[in-house]
Structure formats: C-alpha cells, structure tokens
Specification:
This protein is mainly α and 156 residues long. Helices cover 51% and strands 6% of the residues. The chain has one domain (35-155). The protein has a two-stranded antiparallel sheet.
C-alpha cells in the first residue's frame, strides 16, 4: 500500500523556521499545479514569432522556406502588387492567429479558413508552413518556464 503525505499550511507545535519551510514547499507545489502564466506567455511569444519572423522570412525562420508561387499567379501578383510577400496579399491569415491557454495546456491556432491548405499543402498547392516547432520556439517556451519557476522559488 502506498504511503501518501499531504502538507498543510498550518501546523501546531513546530518551530517557526520549520513551519516557514513547509509553507514554502506548499507554495511551490501549488504553483506547479497551475502553469497558466508561463503557458499563456509562451503562446503569446510563439504567436508574435509566427506573425513576424516566419512571415517576414517566408518560412525561413522555421527552416522551411516557402515554395515559389505558381508561374501564372506569381506574374499576376507581381504586376498588381509588386514586392508583396507570399501569403500577405490581404494579411488576413497573418492576423488570424489566436491563443487558447489554461492551467496545463496552451494552443496557438489560426482561424483563417485557408490556413490548413497552406500549412499542410494540397494536391495543387505546395506546403507553406507558418506554424511549427524549431529550436527558437523551444527556447521561447523554456525561457518563460525558467523565469516562472525562478519567480516561484524567489517568492517562497
């Protein structure tokens, strides 16, 4: 049979120093059950990275540069919108990234109906991925969690 312990924040008959130590452990434990803050901050960082770095480099920031436009569409776009980057004619897709976060999970997603076609590609259109994970994204998340855990330790 397993042995379980539960810390309580009020204990009678112990030294004040030990009670502070127990309270610190309780505070840290409470903080580790709710990752809302670092998850929300990480998701916001990923959203900004995607909307700026990834779109500005046409996928290069993810290590997967976007394929060129079809010849006909490329010629039309150059004639009508010279210098306009890929996937930015209306800027709708770039602006439709959203965040959903909670205690244990965060999601960055896009509400533009054309997003999946570009993200995954189709039989007629090459993949032009704008949302993904690479070392930059991992570092953004790690930095937010490191800061969060350090603040928890400082508070306690």
């Amino acid at each position: 049979m397993p042995l379980s312990f539960k810390l309580k924040s009020t204990l009678d008959g112990i030294s004040p120093g030990f009670e502070k130590l127990i309270q610190k452990a309780v505070d840290i434990d409470r903080g580790l059950k709710d990752y809302t803050i670092p998850l929300k901050e990480s998701a916001a960082d990923i959203k900004v990275f995607t909307q700026t770095d990834v779109f500005d480099t046409e996928g290069g920031a993810l290590g997967n540069p976007w394929k060129k436009l079809s010849d006909n569409y490329g010629l039309w776009k150059q004639a009508n919108y010279p210098g306009m980057k890929k996937l930015q004619l209306t800027r709708t897709m770039k602006q439709k990234f959203k965040i959903r976060s909670g205690k244990r999970k965060a999601t960055v997603f896009n509400t533009d109906k054309k997003f999946p076609w570009h993200q995954l590609g189709t039989s007629r259109m090459p993949q032009r991925q704008s949302l993904g994970i690479n070392s930059k994204v991992v570092n953004l998340v790690e930095d937010r969690f490191e800061n969060y855990l350090n603040k928890l330790l400082e508070k306690s």
